[in-house]
């Protein structure tokens, strides 16, 4: 009778994050941009993705537009919905990280509790909090989507910076004020802290 003790059940073992990172030749990390609407989060995130892509690094951007139109299209902007929005984003981000993919999130995520929740789900060691600290006056001056004007008229309720508060991060890995820094300067500062964390596995 055949001895089954020597049979290795390989089908029982899912490939690990380390396996995926070795395949891709990179370490995954969560780069989490927080800041007011119009502060420059998405612009910097897109520019960073391009720079990392040029270096042969695989990234995925998550932002309000691609998340709220899909996985979170049933959520509004109440306090409980904002928390659930970020919770789901953090869980999705963790799946990307476990696949070895550098993940870039650009969300207002307006208070420390909500960002701490995201960091705890993702893992504190994998979470790089980047505060795009562009002042409210500058964000409102840009008003890219016309949201501040609507919020001032009372057409948008619970709008961060106008009718809802924004808590500044207590210990961000980096702060970027786009009223003082050019896009390239912001990206260069990011690359200084991101590249050592994601550098290829030798």
* Widest sheet, order of strands: 2-3-1-4-5
Name given to the CATH homologous superfamily: P-loop containing nucleotide triphosphate hydrolases
The CATH class turns out to be Alpha Beta
* Largest β-sheet summary: 5 strands, parallel
Determine the N-to-C terminus distance: 45 Å
How do the helices and strands follow one another from N- to C-terminus? Answer: HEHEHHEHEHHEH
**Rough outline:** globular
Name of the CATH architecture: 3-Layer(aba) Sandwich
Cα-atom Rg, whole angstroms? 19 Å
Count of structural domains:
1
Based on secondary structure, the structural category is alpha/beta
Query: In which range does the helix fraction lie?
Result: 40-55%
Name the average pLDDT: 89
CATH topology tier name: Rossmann fold
């Amino acid at each position: 009778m055949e001895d089954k003790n020597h049979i290795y059940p390989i089908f029982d073992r899912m490939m690990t994050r380390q396996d995926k990172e070795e395949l891709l030749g990179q370490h995954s990390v969560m780069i989490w941009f927080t800041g007011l609407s119009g502060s420059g989060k998405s612009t910097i995130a897109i520019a960073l993705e391009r720079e990392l892509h040029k270096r042969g690094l695989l990234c995925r951007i998550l932002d309000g537009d691609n998340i709220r139109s899909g996985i979170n299209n049933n959520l509004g902007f109440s306090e409980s919905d904002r928390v659930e929005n970020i919770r789901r984003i953090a869980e999705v981000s963790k799946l990307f990280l476990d696949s070895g993919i550098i993940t870039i999130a650009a969300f207002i995520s307006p208070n420390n509790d909500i960002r701490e929740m995201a960091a705890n789900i993702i893992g504190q060691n994998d979470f790089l909090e980047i505060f795009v600290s562009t002042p409210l006056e500058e964000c409102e001056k840009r008003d890219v989507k016309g949201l501040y004007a609507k919020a001032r008229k009372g057409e948008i309720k619970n709008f961060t910076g106008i009718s809802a508060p924004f808590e500044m991060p207590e210990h961000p890995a980096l702060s970027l004020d786009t009223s003082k820094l050019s896009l390239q300067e912001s990206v260069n500062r990011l690359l200084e802290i991101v590249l050592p964390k994601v550098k290829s596995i030798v």
